[in-house]
Amino acid sequence: MRTVRLTKESTKDILENLLKRSPNNYGKFEAAVADILANVKEKGDEALFSYTKEFDKVEVTPETIRVTEEEIEEAYKAVDLPQYRQPQYRANDQTVNQNKNHKEHNHQDQEKYDH
What we know:
- The protein has six helices and no strands.
- It has about 120 residues and is mostly helical.
- Helix 2 (about 25-45) packs across helix 3.
- It is flat, with a radius of gyration of 21 Å.
- The model has no long low-confidence stretch (mean pLDDT about 75).
């Protein structure tokens, strides 16, 4: 993946390059995009990991993509944008934690029945 620092000049260049692209050429990509979407619908994460390796040259697995609670907390601390400290964002975190606790509780109940 290419990272570009946006300046007035680079933004102008990007926009000019995008405008040069002909909509007439988009048709040749539609089939490839449709295949990718169908593959992701059918195979889910397995397909996403495969495409990440193919296009981004990065190997991703369920273990390496998992974000820990500590990493999430570090990210919140690193963000200095007041809108992300709004109650709706923290409420979403609480919902995620409640769902996690619910799953853990259900897993414990299942273990009781398995024994």
